[in-house]
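Figure 2 data, in text form.
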Amino acid sequence: PRSTRKDDAMLTDPACPTGFVGLRIGKVDSRKVTDYHGMRYDGQYWHYIDKWLLALARVGRVEDGIRIAKSVFPYFFDGVSIRWKLSVDATPLPERTSYPNDDTLVALIVFSILENARTSNDMPSLTEEIRLLRTSLQGYRPRVTDGPLGWGLEAMYDQFLKDHPRQTAL
């Protein structure tokens, strides 16, 4: 069933600065369960949320970033990796990966940046989320895409990895 752009499908979270769990990307069409490939219906994409979290850290809105991160983490993290997409209401898509992916690495990077920028013990902490991400990344192997759109992101991720394992392949 199609609906108009309304936030009433989103889960509420009064601790999050938006009042909701996560961030929508703002497509016009929405429904409770999004389409698998994500081209038609609105959803929550980790790829966009991580950029918002980094931007909030960089402009000094660290607590807002931490609160959004804490709000979405239980929905995006499946115990092995970060899911690439959720429905607007934070329902996960049925597929799961059996290995830690680049989104998991980016979550660790951005959460660490937010945690390191935390200026007060009164702010929430991402220590537990960072611990879970580090544990899940123990089997992480950097992969290199054959598509030029992914090269820039992979080069960005590689700067945070010891010995820059993708550098030669990129």
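Caption note: The CA atoms of residues 41 and 74 lie 22 Å apart.
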